[in-house]
Amino acid sequence: MSRSVLVTGGNRGIGLAIARAFADAGDKVAITYRSGEPPAGFLAVKCDITDPEQVEQAYKEIEDRHGPVEVLVANAGVTKDQLLMRMSEDDFTSVIDTNLTGTFRVVKRANRGMLRAKKGRVVLISSVVGLLGSAGQANYAASKAALVGFARSLARELGSRNITFNVVAPGFVDTDMTKVLSDEQRQNIVAQVPLGRYAQPEEIAATVRFLASDDASYITGAVIPVDGGLGMGH
Questions:
Q1: InterPro entries, per this entry (predicted)?
Q2: Which pTM value belongs to this model?
């Protein structure tokens, strides 16, 4: 049965792979994007998740076209890497506002329809960095670690309503964001990964789609690492 699926930040990289995975399965997929030209084949809604009014308008458009959101993948995020002593207040708060508070906004709004339907699937995209830590990424790591507590609290709060909340923690993924690294930087990263390679975006997408499937109906509050073993033990 075709479901109404929303992927925030679904215009490129991991988000686009996730959107394509759901579309290939026959779901009605909406994506949000902040800038640039969105990819074809989806209901693309321009939305800055740091603006509550834009979030509300995006949901109204999606609900008018696809019906209430049944599967939400909160993927939109930003980085502003900097060593602590050079990190500005804005470097810290803007990353938290997008990655954590922005996720709060889109999850809260999606749950309006999920509570009425007494069912729903929410998947938050965190990062291995949120569990492992990374020098120069205190803001990003804090925001991604916080998603775990957020999801697990909601799993307890809304489990009785048949709404599941799970977290996927990708490792290093072969996207435009990592392609800008030098060959030396890429080699240093791969050397830390037991499987000895970067992930493909489609590998993250497959895990997300599983968590939204009937096969995962008894999984909630889980953190699923898709990191080639980089963060094991964390």
A1: 3oxo_ACP_reduc (IPR011284), KR_dom (IPR057326), NAD(P)-bd_dom_sf (IPR036291), Sc_DH/Rdtase_CS (IPR020904), SDR (IPR050259), SDR_fam (IPR002347)
A2: 0.95
